[in-house]
Amino acid sequence: MNRRRRLRLVSGDPDDVNDHVPTWEEIATEHGQFMYTVAYRLCGRHEEAEDLVQAALVRVERGLAGYEPGNLRGWLSRITTNVFLDETRRKKRRPVQALPEDPERVLAGAPAADEALAAAELPAYIQEAITTLPHDFRAALVLCDVVGMSYPEISEALDVPVGTVRSRIHRGRSSLRELLRPHLDIDDEGER
Amino acid sequence: MSDDRLSGLLDGELADHERTELEAELETSDELRRELAELEATRALLRALPAVEPRRPIDDITAEPAFIAPSRSRRTGRLGVAVAAVAAIWLLVFTVGVSVGSLPIVPDVDQLAVQHAAASESAMPMPFKVMDADEMMKDDPAIMEDLGHGMALDAVYQYDDLVQSRYSDGDHVVSVFHEPGSVDWEAMPDMGETSMMEDDTMVWRGSIGDVDVVVTERGDLVVTVVSDGDMDDDMAMVASTMVPEVDSSPSWWSRLKDAPGNLLDRL
User: Fold this and answer.
1) Within an 8 Å CB–CB cutoff, is residue A93 touching chain B?
2) What's the distance, CA B227 to chain centroid?
């Protein structure tokens, strides 16, 4: 697989396509917060998100020489996600802290099914639900639903077949569907 | 079992024939339609998540320069015989390897020297994290409690796979970094010198500013030792304790290699 293949536009936003190779400083300044959002959605912790962004920027620095102008945010998302996955594997080899790995665990502060969750609290609750997912599912789902990458792009980013991407996304979404069901905008007839 | 074609349909990622088949199934299955609706609503919630505001300005996060990246450094400097002795001690005393691969890497000796200086001043060495030394020692046999001559382990830091063990006697500091991999000797900075010891162990020696640096391998680990320049005398003392009076046959290096138990006793 050609890892330098240009990513196609993922979000329809013309700003996502760059026709020049940015400097590291431009990336850090203009896309740092985007990387932070991706990192935070993956790990669910601010402190860890900061570390991930820093580590991702290290890889950006190393990779800029080989970067071909194209979908910069897709490239940055891929790097950030792979830093996250590498970090996850490292922690498994050398555990340093408890990780919210168990997808079956009960969410802290999870409301009862018939309780309405304040709108302002919903993103935090969704985030907590995301962090219960296995890391591989989480990575695929974040790249799809937060970043907006296509399955082939995610396949390339994670170096897994497209069929695996579809499976991971679906299994991740299905798990979230169970956790978030009380908050889904669905009527009794199953219509949105 | 849930049908992953449903997510494929929502994401517009189904082949035409798959989509046609699934749409026909949806026509006849209330259960499938409900599942699709719930997945779509879940997807909508995720896609509506807002950008995340960092707890501190993003510029502060991205501006921290202490990146320990294995970029190639180029410096010239003097040899650190004493530190080589320390490296040799480490090389020989360590007995347990970490089987996580042996990818060739080039330790960024410049950055490690910076990191050593930061740890020497007890400054929070970003992006390293301060680890619980006792816990780390249990888990990582490459971390030793004592280097001898009062050089006791007083801190362990970690960043990615790179671990820094800091030893101090109260006045001077030695940092021992280790990370998985093997040394890409061809790509080591050409200002230093790479040599092969009598037991075929490769060692790279150089100095950066006021510190001596030695890079070597132990099993699947790359070991980089950074020592204050002022440590030469003490390290020489350590070396002299470890090494019997000069005796060329067999070499002190070979004798060290053959007698790790004795070394451990003396340490």
Assistant:
1) yes
2) 17
Task: Find chain B residues with C-beta within 8 A of A173's C-beta.
Answer: 7, 39, 42-43, 46
- B247 reaches A (C-beta below 8 A): no
Residue-wise pLDDT tens digits, B80-101 = 334 434 443 444 334 333 333 4
The whole-model pTM stands at 0.54
| Distance between CA atoms of residues B165 and B116, nearest Å | 10
* Side-by-side strand order, sheet with B211-218: B129-131, B152-159, B162-168, B173-180, B221-228, B211-218, B202-208, B193-196
The nearest alpha carbon in chain A to B12 belongs to: A150
Residue B7 contacts A where some CB pair is shorter than 8 Å: yes
HSE-up of residue B57 (Cα within 13 Å, Cβ side): 6
For chain A, the straight-line distance linking the first and the last C-alpha, in angstroms and rounded, comes to 40
Question: A122-130 vs A24-43: helix axis angle to the nearest 10?
Answer: 80
Cα separation, B233 vs A160, in Å, equals: 55
Phi-psi region of A26 (alpha: psi -120 to 50; beta: other; left: phi over 0): alpha
Query: ipTM surpassing 0.85, yes or no?
Result: no
C-alpha–C-alpha distance, residues B66 and A50, integer Å: 13
